[in-house]
Design a protein that fits this description.
Length: 388
């Protein structure tokens, strides 16, 4: 039986340059095959001109609500004296809440599906069966950032960590069902009943991310949104700590850091051996033209979509333990895991210097992804939760 599902997002899920957008887009695409969706997305920037048309293919009701910059700044200022997380205040507009409630009254959905705690305030008192997708354990990610932050960042990060941790626990009771991206993240949600959260992993679009024959221009590639703090930290760790060890053996090794919105810290890593691309129209070209992919993540939470994409394109992968924790690949078989800069460097060298090892790891990773990360199967599990 087809049911009406109201989907509330904190960002317009197109283009797919951020992890939450990617997750939302593919879940919407799969859910729309079996159910009628009402899509409602907030936006702190002008939506991409193509976004409405793309999403219209999955829903007869697509609604974007733009957050004004003045409103954001005012809410953040007022929130200094509140107990809510700043990221919740950033996305919550009372006037937009009224419009969302009117949409809900108009469509009378069977279920409301909210992505991230940033949207919880909009529907917390509505008496309709509803689900919150925590996606990641945000508070734990903030705790990791706090541990390595510069002294002048610690005060704000500590305040946000405390507020998010409290809010994750408080919002738990507002929703009938809860989902999250991985078991390690579920364990980090600060609620005694966190075992009731359903794990819905991400998938990978294997029709899009598939092996492509292309000349190898780069030796190592790292991808992602390069304004995201965990990716900024990972890029610096790669270039400043890992690559000097690789370059001591292979001085000509070239690195590509490919992804949208690189921060100044990432742009400063550019050199004759390191290319920082910024936004690229087709990220597959950088996977395909590289010999080895690395996910040198030391902070952050959740499942790294970038590893799934690289594996689906048969690129051998080197990962930090943190990046592999949610993936749960078998070290030495599906990918190589380096516990420190030296181990990561040695893994990279072993792959660059041995084509057969590179080939075998790429094949293993490819089959691992096909067997375990499929958008259709993960979204079917989500649909069962939403319509139960």
């Amino acid at each position: 039986m087809r049911k009406k599902i109201f989907v509330l997002l904190s960002r317009v899920p197109y283009p797919l340059e951020k992890g939450d957008k990617l997750r939302a887009f593919h879940q919407i695409r799969e859910l729309s095959k079996r159910h009628d969706l009402i899509i409602c997305a907030l936006s702190d920037i002008s939506p991409d001109p193509q976004a409405y048309k793309v999403l219209e293919a999955f829903s007869a009701s697509v609604n974007f609500f733009e957050l004004s910059k003045i409103g954001i700044y005012w809410r953040l200022f007022r929130n200094i004296f509140s107990g809510k997380p700043f990221q919740v205040a950033y996305f919550f507009d009372r006037r937009i809440k009224k419009k969302i409630h009117k949409l809900i009254s108009l469509h009378q959905p069977h279920h409301i599906y909210c992505q991230l705690i940033r949207t919880a305030e909009y529907v917390k008192e509505i008496n309709i069966d509803k689900t919150i997708d925590y996606q990641d354990a945000f508070s734990f990610g903030l705790k990791r950032r706090l541990e390595i932050a510069a002294w002048h960042e610690k005060i704000l990060l500590h305040a946000e960590y405390t507020r998010v941790r409290r809010y994750e626990k408080e919002s738990f009771g507002w929703f009938d069902k809860k989902t999250i991206i991985s078991e390690p993240d579920r364990e980090k949600i600060p609620h005694p009943d966190n075992n009731l959260i359903s794990v819905i992993p991400n998938g990978v679009d294997v029709d899009y991310f598939h092996p492509i024959e292309k000349e190898k221009v780069y030796d190592i590639v790292f991808t992602g949104n390069m304004s995201y703090p965990p990716n900024i930290n990972g890029a610096e760790y790669l270039v400043k700590d890992i690559m000097p060890i690789v370059w001591s053996v292979l001085p000509g090794a070239r690195v590509a850091i490919a992804g949208a919105s690189p921060s100044q810290r990432v742009r400063s890593l550019s050199s004759d051996r390191v290319v920082v691309t910024g936004w690229v129209d087709d990220i597959r070209s950088y996977y395909a033209s590289s010999r080895v992919f690395i996910a040198p993540m030391r902070i952050g939470t959740g499942l790294q979509n970038k590893i799934l994409e690289a594996m689906a394109m048969q690129i051998p992968c080197v990962s930090s333990p943190l990046a592999n924790k949610a993936l749960n690949g078998k070290p030495g078989e599906d990918l190589l895991v380096g516990n420190n800069a030296n181990e990561c460097a040695q893994h990279i060298l072993s792959l660059l210097q041995n084509e057969q090892v590179r080939y075998e790891l790429a094949q293993n990773g490819y089959h691992f992804v096909l067997q375990n990360f499929n958008w259709e199967s993960t979204s079917l599990k989500l649909a069962k939760i939403l319509t139960a």
